[in-house]
Amino acid sequence: MEFWDLFLVALMPVLKVLLITALGTILAIDRFNILGETARKNLNTMVYFVFSPTLVCSSLAETITLRSVVRLWFMPVNILLTFVIGTVLGLLVVKLTRVPNHLQGLVLGCCAAGNLGNLPIIIVPAVCKQSGNPFGDVNVCTKNALAYASLSMALGSVYIWSYAYNLVRLYAPKICNEAKIAENSMENPMSITKTDAENPSTCSTGLPFGIVVGDKSQSQDHVKNFEIHSTNSDHGKTGEAQKGEMIMKQLKTLVKKINLKILFTPSTIGAIVGLIIGVVPQFRKLLIGDKASLRAVEDSVIMVGYACIPVMTLLVGANLMKGLNEFGKQFAAIVGITMMRCIVLPGIGVGIVKGAIRLGLIRPDPLYEFLLLLQFALPPAVSLSTITQLFGAGEGECSVIMLATYSCAAVSVTLWSTFYMWLVL
């Protein structure tokens, strides 16, 4: 296909996203106030707990098999590389623009975490549905695109709530009862109030999230005991047994203190359930297909999941309203983040994906290669808005960054998608 034809194919889905996003912004303005603050919180809760996990579960269950899981093993590595390289680029932005300490985690998070959820699951299937798409039969392409994008959404959710969450947390102001706030946020992700972050009596320590430091003397005694038992390796079987018991005791203490709820988000749980149904033949025969005994369950889940895409896109537009009043602040950092995510990172992604293909790590599949490349060219993850609300730091700045990056992404994602399609064909 000619470059202009590829450009039109790439433009259509991005234009659809832009139009729905604009509608969300209009519905959020004070004159209409249809998507006001309360409505956005309720819809965000529905997306988080209902729409997103059902979409991921139904898409993975219908399209993923054991064979395809083996074939798609490089995607988690690719997403991890986008986060690590984005963090390095974020450090460069922090140094060059002299970002204040309390916003450094936000800048790093925006450079590291891309919108691996709703944008790929909108753009990639929409490209397949365009007449003259370069990826072959429309039905087969759409089915595979949903599977690839759903896996991207599930993996992205895990990385965001484990990797990007900690980036923001480590640089956030000292917060009282951090673990309690995190636990409450999982029950209702939009219920965080500023009062939770205005009592800095307990310090954030930089430990893995969910780990709460109690009595200092007690923790120091644990460390001393662990060091003593670790170094006494010359006391025969009794010493080795004691050392093993101490190591197990320390591991159990760590496991109890780590809040795994924040890692196993609803989307992640939906992905696990979908993978189990898709991979296990007995479950697949029972639930998937026209001849399945419980096909009504599958159809119901699919119907609920279809609501995810338009609602998430409307919320992106509605949330951008927060940034309109504060556009002049941190201008240099916003420009830096936009350049890194829209120009530098997508270019680096070309070298990584093409290098993996040359080394034989990726089997030839133009649609799969296109998604891997697209993962480097996405604007920051919308989940960062929830994370900044969790810590009560940088909420306004986060909205400004979202406004700037998503405005530029309307052009950059179209151009990079055109180039990527030309590259993989």
TrEMBL record:
Lineage of origin: Eukaryota, Viridiplantae, Streptophyta, Embryophyta, Tracheophyta
Keywords per UniProt: Auxin signaling pathway, Endoplasmic reticulum, Membrane, Transmembrane, Transmembrane helix, Transport
Stated family: Belongs to the auxin efflux carrier (TC 2.A.69.2) family.
Localization (cell): Endoplasmic reticulum membrane
Membrane topology summary: Multi-pass membrane protein
UniProt keyword Transmembrane helix present: yes
Protein name: Protein PIN-LIKES 3
Transmembrane regions listed in the UniProt entry: 6-29, 73-94, 106-126, 146-165, 258-280, 300-320, 332-353, 373-393, 400-423
GO cellular component, one term: endoplasmic reticulum membrane
Entry function: Involved in cellular auxin homeostasis by regulating auxin metabolism. Regulates intracellular auxin accumulation at the endoplasmic reticulum and thus auxin availability for nuclear auxin signaling.
Alphabetical GO biological process terms: auxin-activated signaling pathway; endoplasmic reticulum to cytosol auxin transport
Pfam family name, one: Mem_trans
